[in-house]
Design goal:
Helices cover 61% and strands 13% of the residues. The protein contains 8 helices and 4 strands.
């Protein structure tokens, strides 16, 4: 394992330990995951949180403005911790590892589901059951709202991708029609 991977793993396990000790692991895990995926998708947010010239307090104020009232206080504190440490650039990888650690502790695999819209709890459960049946694994579903999906969903469990998006169905139809 490289030094960078060790660092990512260390941060992930620290965040995991704090959230578990506070008794809010499922909530914090979901909130961190959503924030990290948002960071990947929004260039201006990523640039603001990783700009070395911007004071840490300003970066933490951005986090507080975005999620302060809508997230568990532990989530906000942990995001601030990562920013304080100068590791905002690695946040998506840290949180991905944290989600894998949490899923592994429950003997589950991590399933990332991309959808154009937020999914209801019933939809998440139905997708989780379908992915469990398809993979033979118990899965923890993490939903990422991604407008580029247009319609349907794209799910990833480990290296396996299940593409039920409208765009992939259209591509398949085009290939079938020979256009």
């Amino acid at each position: 394992m490289t030094r960078d991977e060790d660092l990512i793993q260390g941060y992930a396990e620290a965040l995991f330990s704090v959230a578990r000790a506070e008794g809010v692991l499922p909530t914090v895990e979901d909130e961190l995951y959503g924030f990290a995926k948002g960071l990947e998708q929004h260039t201006s947010l990523r640039e603001a949180l990783t700009d070395a010239a911007l004071p840490t307090e300003n970066k933490k104020a951005v986090i507080d403005e975005l999620v302060g009232d809508r997230a568990n206080p532990v989530t906000v504190t942990l995001l601030g911790f990562v920013v304080d440490a100068g590791r905002a650039r690695e946040l998506p990888r840290i949180v991905e590892h944290l989600a894998q650690v949490a899923a592994g502790e429950r003997d589950h695999a991590l399933a990332e589901v991309r959808s154009a819209v937020e999914l209801t709890e019933a939809q998440r459960d139905r997708i989780g059951r379908a992915l469990s049946q398809a993979t033979g694994l118990s899965v923890d579903v993490k939903v990422v709202v991604d407008p580029s999906v247009v319609g349907g969903i794209v799910a990833r469990v480990g290296d396996e991708v299940f593409d039920g998006s409208v765009s992939s169905r259209l591509d398949s139809a085009k290939q079938h029609l020979g256009t």
